[in-house]
Write a structure and sequence with these properties.
alpha/beta, Aspartate Aminotransferase, domain 1, Aspartate Aminotransferase, domain 2, 4-stranded antiparallel beta sheet, 15 helices, binds pyridoxal-5'-phosphate
Length: 394
């Protein structure tokens, strides 16, 4: 195939230094758990030491004050007032809080897509088993045609029993940016509540959560906001805030999101304080510049992977459904050589020292690359060379 005329973006100067990543590993999986810049890790440690010096004064009496700065910084990044942003430990906790808050009636339906994150599917099954609700997974076959096509499929699945639509902003196995705004509009026009699972979205996509208008939106900060693990949030719309409680109820039940989420039992507030430092780290390069760099690198990587002839595209090549990750499909031959996607992932690591997730979705084998500030074009070339060498052995 002819080489693509589009080159990779210029790296953001200084973003390849200051990580804790093992230089022996080509790390193309920022999307799963992120990786923490040294500067943010050190800030979190400073905050922890500050708390440990006077635990009663700082956690017991002062926790609300400690959380003001991170919540304000987060509110600016997300386009939402801090009092309707509850800090949680991960997107799983954000989703659990919402599912637990809905007063289900037997026969209610939740609509999601076949690309839903596996753990979220399990959380929905738990609600089904407890409350007799139905879970409808809308089929979105590969290759995905367009945002409009996804929207039409979701809308076609809505019925008068649909109580909640729960859709990923960025899907995990397929790395698709879903048309969140259009989904919210279409559901609200039918009186249906929407939760957006934005586990990957903060720091990957520009967000304006109040403008988006979803009833609930949860997002992780340890991935693309470069914050410590344990940093995530749940945002509720103005209409939903009063009925939104954390999954772990503690002293402030009923006192409003700010207080209720501010104390969900004793936890690592030092990590949450470092949200301010993580956002400052990103803003030092320009938050928009970081997002743009990552998106363009993912776009270039997807093109290189497809041009290599080893991978098939599963999403529009025009970038209309892409953020800072790209997933491509492998053909059926790989399944004959490798017993499972886990075996293939292990072989890629052993052969080329490349850490990249291989996932199976409805029988398709997918390889997903991430593009973070620490990534450079040669790393995707290494993946392609490694796959080529494994391919020769098939
Ligand atoms: C779409 C989606 N939802 C939810 C999660 C769960 O995130 P966590 O394990 O941080 O709770 C993930 C994790 O990557 C995800 O990709």
């Amino acid at each position: 195939m002819a080489p693509s005329p589009l080159g990779p973006p210029n790296p953001l100067s200084g973003t390849d230094a200051g990580w804790q990543l093992d230089p022996a590993i080509v790390f193309l999986n920022h999307g799963s758990f992120g990786s923490l810049p040294v500067a943010v890790a050190e800030a979190a440690e400073r905050h922890r030491r500050f708390i440990e010096a006077q635990p009663i004064a700082r956690l017991g009496r002062g926790v609300a004050d400690l959380l003001n700065a991170p919540k304000e910084a987060l509110g600016r990044l997300l386009g939402a007032p801090p009092e309707r942003i509850g800090l949680v430990e991960n997107a799983t906790a954000g989703i659990a809080a919402v599912l637990r808050n809905v007063a289900w009636h037997p026969g209610d339906e939740v609509v999601t897509t076949g690309h839903v994150y596996g753990a979220v599917r399990q959380a929905l099954f738990r609600e089904r088993d407890l409350h007799g609700i139905a879970i409808r997974e809308v089929s979105v076959p590969l290759p995905v045609q367009s945002s409009d096509d996804v929207l039409a499929r979701i809308v076609a699945a809505l019925t008068d029993r649909t109580r909640l639509v729960l859709v990923d902003h960025v899907t995990s196995p397929t790395a698709l940016v879903m048309p969140a705004r259009e989904i919210v509009k279409a559901c609200h026009a039918r009186g249906i509540a929407v939760m957006i699972d934005g586990a990957h979205a903060p720091g990957m996509l520009p967000l304006d959560l109040d403008g988006l208008g979803a009833d609930w939106y949860t997002g992780n900060l340890h991935k693309w906001v470069y914050a410590p693990k344990g940093c995530a949030f749940l945002h509720a719309s103005a209409q939903r805030a009063h009925e939104t409680h954390p999954a772990s109820i503690s002293h402030h039940y009923g006192a409003g999101m700010d207080l209720e989420f501010g104390w969900q039992g004793t936890r690592d507030v030092g990590a949450w304080m470092a949200i301010t430092d993580a956002i400052a780290w990103m803003e030092a390069f320009g938050a928009g510049a970081v997002m743009d760099h990552n998106k363009r690198l993912a776009e270039w990587a997807q093109r290189r992977m497809v041009d290599s002839g080893l991978f098939e595209p599963i999403s529009p090549m025009d970038g209309s459904m892409r953020g800072s990750m790209a997933a491509c499909r492998l053909d059926a031959r790989w399944r004959h050589r490798f017993a499972s996607v886990e075996a293939l992932q292990a072989a890629i690591l052993a052969e080329g020292s490349v850490e990249v997730p291989c996932m199976e979705l409805h029988g398709d084998w997918l390889v997903r690359v991430s593009a973070a500030p620490h990534n450079r074009p040669w790393q995707y070339e290494r993946l392609i060379d490694t796959m080529r060498s494994l391919d020769r052995a098939i």
